[in-house]
Predict the 3D structure of the following.
Amino acid sequence: MKLKKGIPLIDQHDKNGFWGGKFGGNFIPETLKKPVEDLTIKFQKLRKDKKFIRKKDFYFKNYIGSPTPFIKLENLSNSLGGAQIWAKVVSEANGGAHKIYNATIHALICKAMGKKYIIGDTGAGYAGKMLSMAAKKFGLKCKIFMGAKDIKRQKPNCDAMKKNGAKIVPVYSGSQTLVDAVSECMRYWVSNCDKVHMAVGSTVGPNIFVKICGWSTTQISKELKIQLKEQFNKIPKKIKLINCVGGGSSAYGFWSEFIDYDKKQIELIGVEAGGPKNSKLHAAPLSKNAKIGILHGAASYVCQNKEGQISETKSISAGLDYPGVSPIHCFLKDAKRARYTFATDEDALNAYKIVTKHEKLNPSLEPCHAFAEAIKIAPRLSKDTIIVVNSCGDAQKDRDILKKRLGKY
Ligand SMILES: *Cc1c(COP(=O)(O)O)cnc(C)c1O
């Protein structure tokens, strides 16, 4: 499996929407073909439209707060010895995580299509919260589909969505979680696609949604490239870019501008959720060698049982608790351009302790999976190696769980 140089990875799919011939695609009902096609044509026009680009850049800067900081974690680096550890503090973005980039782009597309209604699905509630923020900002009516079980588990995010004026639609079918919320959201879109735009919260789903989301989060690596040059006068010789991987939108955004570089110069490391240390449950389809399956309209490595039933996943970080993963990352894995590993719940908690002990940074449990890997490999690396961790979320949202698991925090 080979990557092409000079072409964004989001565009390296075949005419049927597959990356590497087998990941992604459009596994959708006949009735969704037309709205998906309309959205594809519209998005391909918009991404080349200078006026739309100016609008995007304006809101990224003045609403989201780009560029986000790039800082050296000097105390952490000194305490570990070895490589220099830096952080791209994406959690400084409006809303406290990278999901706002995709939500903002979807709201702008919705408006450009002349639609007043936007819908989306959410599991832990962050995708829903960010979409409701963007909907409010751009004057759109917003509906969020959410499993009834998740609504009970994620009250603070539900409250935030309601405060932003979004309507939460509880989904009572199946396991009453994200998987069912996605199906219900798509069903609703089929019958209302004339007036309603649908957003997907990560680089997953039918082909066009992978592309839109990836195009949005690319902003992160565009900024980082400039920041690296400002800091080191050039792109350094030995870099490791470490990112947690749930659906894979923050990792793609963090890496996209660097994929063409030689992997000896810039190593890309994705860290999945290994789940509780003494449990068989996890959310790590790439690093635990899951088989290919079809989930939410696309083929990818998916956590599944022997019969192909989607497995239950488990992770301390709600943002990573997803059985599938972006087709783009499946491709990067098979092309051997990125290396994927996992960190357990305990590893992530321990990383949180270490990072917050040394630095004035408060990374949420998702990026703490990435920090766990950084902490593990840094001492063995040379002083001129630059590790950059995408600190993609703020731990404010994890307050209760951190208190429960770590006591004093
Ligand atoms: C949702 C979320 C993730 C996981 O999603 P990706 O698409 O893999 O980025 C990671 N970190 C945070 C803070 C999130 O909210």
About this structure: The chain has a mean pLDDT of 96. The chain has two domains: 26-59+98-214, 61-96+218-406.
